[in-house]
Every structure is written in C-alpha cells, then in structure tokens.
Design brief:
Elements: E1 6-10, H1 14-26, E2 32-36, E3 48-51, E4 54-57, E5 63-64, H2 74-81, E6 88-89, E7 96-100, E8 103-106, E9 111-112, E10 115-116, H3 149-157, H4 159-174, H5 183-186, H6 188-194, H7 200-210, E11 220-223, H8 228-238, E12 241-243, E13 248-253, E14 258-262, E15 269-273, E16 275-278, H9 282-289, H10 294-301, E17 304-316, E18 325-327, E19 336-341, H11 342-345, E20 355-362, H12 375-390, E21 399-411, H13 416-430, E22 434-436, H14 439-442, H15 446-463
Parallel strand pairs: 1-2, 1-16, 2-12, 7-18, 16-22
Antiparallel strand pairs: 3-4, 5-11, 6-11, 7-8, 9-10, 13-14, 14-15, 17-20, 17-21, 18-19, 19-20
Helix pairs in contact: 1-8, 1-15, 2-15, 3-4, 6-7, 9-10, 10-13
Length: 469
C-alpha cells in the first residue's frame, strides 16, 4: 500500500467532518484526507444564517450536553477538541408548551421524550388509560424485539398520551409519527429497560435513573456565534482538502482500495484512495454501494426520509410568552408542528430593541404536499397560526427566511438497528475500507452524528492496519 494513506470522506456534514478530525488525530502522520461535498456549502443540517443583522440557525439549533450514560456528549467533546468550549451557551428559558385544544399548556415534567414516568404529572394535557399498565409477569419487550414507540405506549397508556405527548415530541425531532418509529433507534434507553421491566412506568423510571442529571445542569447547548463555527473549526483542525461542488458518482474497488468517479458525466475525474467514509444519507449511499455491494445497497436504501421547512421571522416587539417554544400535536390541525422563540430561549440572542426571532417548523412525514406552497404562502400561514395559538395578532415581520430541507429526517421503522447491523457486517466482510457514517444509520442529533463519524474513522484506521496515535 502506498504511503501516506489517502482517505476520502464523502459528505461534508458534521458526521463527515468529525470523521476527518478523528482521522487527523489518530491516523498515521501524513495521511491525506479529502472531503467531497456535492453542494457548495459544508455543514449539512448545521447552517447558521443571518436575519435582521443577527446570526440565526437555519438548521439544527442545539446539541445535548450529555450522552445516555450521563457522560459528556460527543458534541461537547468535539467542541472542546476544537477550542470552542468557552463558546458553549445554554438556554435561559427552558419551559416549553404543547398546543392543546388551541391553547398553550406547559409540557409536564418527568417524561422521557413524552413517555411519562408519573401518570399524575401528565393529567393536565392527557388522560392515561386507567389500569392498563399492569405487571404481566414478563418484560415489556422481548430480548431481540423492536416495536414502534406508538404501539408500546398506546398499549400501556392509551391514545391520548401518544397523540398529545409522545407524537408531538417525536414529531419535533423526526417529523414522523410515533406509530411508525422504532423504539430501539429513537429511544434506546427506554428500549433497554423495557427488556427488563414489566411496566412502562417502571421502564421509564429505570431509564431516567440510568442517566441521572445533576439538579440545574443544562440539558442543551449551542455555540455563541452559531453552529457553523463548529463546522469551520472542524475543517481547519482536520487539515483536509475540501472539494465543494464535487459529487462522487461512483465507487469502484481496486486492488489496493477504491477509485472515485467525481464530477460531471461528460468530464469525470478519477481519484484513487485507500479507504472511504460514506457520510451521506441512505439513498445516495445506496447508489454508491450498488456496484460493489448490491445487497448492502438494497438494505441501506430502504430507509425513508421526511421533508421539512423552517420559517424564521424577525418580529418587532411582539408579545410572546416566557417560553422556549411549543410543540403541536397533529390532532390540532395546524400546519406548524413546532415553534421556537429564539430570543426568549437563548439569552445571548436577546436584543435591546426588542426585535424577536421566531422560528416555526412545518412538515410531517407523509404530508409533503403542504411543502409545495410558495415561500410567501408558507410564511403567511405560519404568521397566522402563531397569532392564533398565542391569542394575539403578531406584528408584521421586518425580515424573514424560509429554509427547505428536502429528505432531511430519517424515518427509522422498527427493525432499523438490526437491518443496519446486518448491512455493516456484510460491508466489513467484503469491503472493510468502506464505512458508513451519519444520521441515516445511527440516529439524529449532533452528538450521535459526531460519534458516528468518529467511529467510522477508527474503523478505517483499523482496516488499513494502522495504529491510532
């Protein structure tokens, strides 16, 4: 094998860039790393823009501070590695609300992604089924089974808890339905305890106890100046060559690694590398895998995605509640599924002139037709629905932005983890120098994607026979 190593990272989102940083830190000195991004913008779903002269997130807004074990999350560790730890800020208002019967009700505490560990605490927004969560003498979920979140919660707590609590909480993260989403992938902590506990209340409490949080410790963080600073710092730290507007169209195995076909069909560029990280969504990954690993491609490409639009408005001195935002159950019949009051939630964004930045999320899985509306129509509908929910007419925005994320959010059906494990096992056996990373495989959220990219980098180092530095 030629030295130094040449490693391609296909995809310039946070997973791919985390892989590039880990390769730089752990791979042998002199390793050549090239990041290929088919668009002109790095960062994937991390994108800081500007509205009314102020930085604002047009994509992911924050990251979890702790991982499921209670340790520092991979996002925080990466920020520390990149010298950005001092830029981490936390919400100054943490209370959010649910829209129930057209009005706002505070989200009750003590839940795990909406699944209650104390039924009395959720009675203000949903009526749990009476005496349904009984001890049947066996664990809720079999040792190797996966079920939808909705199926489990409905069987134990009834429809209202799913529709008014769990569905909007999961919808805010995945734009999907609780009845369609895998328990193992979307709520792994609860899945683990459900394999032991005989009641759902017991499983929730056990999951909460397994990852205790110090009183007052912040749950979420973001970066002053915007999350795009994480992207910029990762590029610099990785020392990678970055190729923007460079679509990788084909992967061909060679005797010593891989040949990438890059660029337009009429004038392709052929690049030889020793290994590649595919840090792209499932469908483009499946297209690249179709030649060298067709069975893996079929399994990976089956994952479906939801599309969303984020409508952000700058409003002059609106009357907003002291909330971080609200979630909307689909039963309310609104286009909006969630809203965030940026300048209320994040103290570092507050302005002395009282201008407020408000963002609403639009689009649920299976309802993509609503996103076909023009930007102006979406913005007007959001403004009208926000006014109705708040019970007061909002002032006309002085600035606005509509960010569309087509095919952005993976919809993990039950069995996703097993299908992915089988795909990765087959890929390692046939092509150990080709590794998958990103949200389409390991879960959404910045920490999960960072960890996925770092794990992929470690696999590449092992496959190439190197020793981590």
């Amino acid at each position: 094998m030629r030295q130094p190593w040449r490693v391609a990272v296909v995809g310039g989102g946070i997973a791919g860039l985390a892989a590039a940083v880990r390769l730089r830190d752990r791979a042998p000195a002199g390793t050549e790393i090239t990041v290929y991004e088919q668009s002109g913008v790095l960062g994937g779903k991390l994108r800081t823009g500007e509205l009314a002269g102020q930085p604002v997130e047009f994509g992911a807004e924050s990251f979890l501070m702790r991982d499921p074990t209670g340790a520092e999350s991979a996002a925080v560790a990466l920020a520390r590695r990149l010298g950005l730890a001092e830029k981490i800020v936390h919400p100054t208002v943490g209370q959010a609300a649910l829209v129930i019967d057209g009005g706002l009700c505070p989200i009750p505490g003590g839940t795990l992604v909406g699944v209650p560990g104390d039924l009395d605490r959720v009675a203000t927004v949903a009526r749990p089924a009476a005496d349904a969560d009984t001890d049947g003498g066996r664990p809720l979920v079999g040792p190797d089974a996966d079920v939808s979140v909705g199926a489990l919660v409905r069987s134990r707590f009834g429809n209202e808890v799913v529709e008014r609590l769990v569905d909007p909480m999961l919808g805010g993260v995945y734009a999907g339905r609780a009845d369609d989403l895998s328990l193992v992938t979307t709520m792994p902590a609860l899945a683990r305890t459900a394999r032991v506990e005989h009641t759902l209340v017991g499983a929730v409490r056990a999951a909460q106890a397994a990852a205790p949080r110090a009183p007052g410790a912040p749950v979420f963080g973001t970066l002053a100046g915007g999350l795009s600073t994480l992207i910029e710092a990762a590029v610099t730290a990785s020392g990678a060559t970055v190729r923007r507007d460079a679509a990788v169209r084909e992967l061909t195995p060679t005797g010593t690694g891989w040949q990438l076909t890059v660029g337009p069909t009429r004038d392709p560029e052929l690049v030889d590398v020793d290994a590649a990280v595919l840090a792209v969504p499932a469908r483009p990954a499946a297209r690249l895998l179709a030649g060298p690993a067709p069975a893996v491609a079929a399994g990976v490409g089956a994952l479906d995605y939801a599309s969303v639009a984020l409508v952000t408005m700058a409003l002059p001195q609106p009357r907003l509640p002291e909330l971080s935002g609200f979630l909307v159950p689909s039963t309310e019949g609104l286009l909006i599924k969630a809203a965030t009051f940026f300048t209320t939630k994040w103290g570092h964004l507050r302005r002395p002139d009282g201008l407020a930045l408000v963002r609403a999320s639009v689009g649920r899985y299976g309802e993509e037709a609503h996103l076909q509306r023009p930007d102006a129509d979406l913005a007007a509908t959001v403004h009208r629905e926000l006014s109705a929910v708040l019970g007061t007419p909002l002032p006309a925005p002085v600035d606005g932005h509509v960010q569309r994320w087509g095919g952005a959010l993976p919809q993990y059906a039950p069995g996703h983890a097993d299908r992915l494990a089988a795909a990765r096992t087959a890929l390692r056996a046939a092509h150990p120098t080709l590794v998958l990373a990103g949200a389409g495989y390991d879960g959404v959220g910045i920490p999960v994607c960072v960890r996925s990219g770092e794990t992929a980098a470690e696999e590449i180092i092992t496959a190439l026979g190197g020793s981590a530095r």
